[in-house]
Amino acid sequence: MRIAIEGCCHGSLDTIYKTIGLAVQRTGIKVDLLLCCGDFQAVRNEQDLQCMACPAKFRDMHTFWEYYCGRKTAPVPTIFIGGNHEASNHLRELFYGGWVAPNIWYLGHSGVINFGGVRIAGLTGIFKGGDYQRGHFELPPYDNSSMRSAYHVREYDVAKLASLSGRVDVALSHDWPRGIYNHGNTQRLLAQKKFLREEVQTNTLGSPPAMELLMALRPRYWFSAHLHVKFPAVFHHTNGGSGSGDGGGSGGGDAMTTKFLALDKCLPGRDFLQIVDVDGAAPLAPGEEPRFQYDAEWLAITRAAAPHLRFDQGRVRTPTNRPFAVSPEAAEEARRVFAASAPDADPVRALDVPLNFAVTAEPYDPRARQRGAAAPRQHTPFQLSPQTVSFCQRLGIPLPLPMQRGSGGGSSSGAGQAGLSLRTLQVGASPAFVTGSSANPDEIDLDLGDDDDDSGGGGGGGGAGRAVVRNPDAIDLDDEEEGGESDEEPAHGVAGCADGSSGGEPGGAEAGGIAGGADVGLEGVKELPVSLGEQEGASGGGSSKVGGTGRLKLSLPPPKNS
């Protein structure tokens, strides 16, 4: 299965999909799935925009609302996790995951989904020690503090993922597993991001629970974003599952290495997209497409963990040594319970995810702004998505809501009952427009636009973003060895710009690819890297056999200004 991996989305869905389309057009490959590693920004309207933690100058509607209201449809099945710049109110409605738009699936605060037989796990948010052991107390209306703590990872969700057994093909997190930088080319990373040096040297960069999960689950691939830089690494596990560090786990897969890759944000000249080939997909009949399916073990874990879900701010220690581990019999029971209410009686499709997306909030109307209408300054009452209610009813678990709300964004402990109507679950509105900031000492806040001006493509809307099409089995560890190639043939192809320039960042080895910026300029694309066997790659953690890249010469029209 060919899967496109994207770093920080920041609402640039049009550019990402166009870039994938260009890769398909120029190579003839078929991309089966897109995975986005956070900062997705599923913003439906201007009220959602008010719930996104970022400076006001970076609050932009972008184009997700067009997919939400049906103006556009995602051309590639898409799965994403949340980061630290999200419409937190929207994602909270889908606590256990769900469709944010047709063909676009959110994994929830933590989640596991099977897509065509490939098992994908994800953890939403970023790590902050002060909030790690708290309950999920945040609900709209947010204040400056709860708007940010809403995207902080909770131990409860990590414990659920840590309880998994068996193979995990792909794992996603927004921030990096702590210490993963020791297993790649650390010096190159620090040359690109000098401000990370102190945290790398003191081993305080990244998420400790994400590294615990990497060592316990032993996924074949782990993808992240957040730091706005491409960084590949290979983590070697020991037989005990602890890898090159301390700790370990007893429930994960049998992979002896985890290939890690972090990618940049979607900007001109940046390494924001890479395509990999993940084996293990289920065989398909002619004309059949891969399907989204619930994971039976994850359903059982969710059932086992539901009584322990807390909504207060008090700290509750949740052991991460597989506290919600379930037996095969419990997984089969969860499958049976879930299948009993499946709309399709076919047992083969009992775990298929229903196509039950529904518009639950009024979409953005650009015409209203053109008429000079003021932006809404009041949150609509919060309510769970009907998808969440249906999921809880089918699984027989309480709704992920407190019974009563306190003031100031907090909540009392307890859980609602699945039989309550949506109307009774609404939470009051606030006339306040949330502004200001609340510092998080554990957060590397790249402020969405920290380096927008050095995108390498000359700036402006005419530039073309950089995407990467790779050897399917290669988390490209050999970029630094290819820097000696001539300017005429950059290390990994030419990123085309509307003006015919390369669009690459000046200096250093490029991890390039194809054009794909704001207008996905086709002119200027001269070549595209393709898979050509294997070669020795190098990383800071040692040598690893990975796939190489080659050249596919394309006969394209010359740039318009040539």
Describe this protein's structure.
By secondary structure, this protein is of the alpha/beta class. The chain is built from 13 helices and 16 strands. It has helices at 13-27, 46-50, 64-69, 88-93, 146-149, 155-162, 186-192, 197-201, 208-217, 296-305, 328-340, 366-370, 386-395, and strands at 2-6, 33-36, 78-80, 98-101, 104-106, 110-115, 118-123, 170-173, 221-224, 231-236, 257-262, 271-277, 292-294, 466-469, 527-539, 542-553. The chain has a seven-stranded mixed sheet. A seven-stranded mixed sheet has the order 10-11-9-8-7-6-13. The protein has a two-stranded antiparallel sheet with strand order 15-16. A hairpin with a 2-residue loop joins β15 and β16 (542-553). α10 crosses α11. The longest helix has 15 residues, at 13-27. The protein starts with a strand and ends in a 9-residue tail after the last strand.
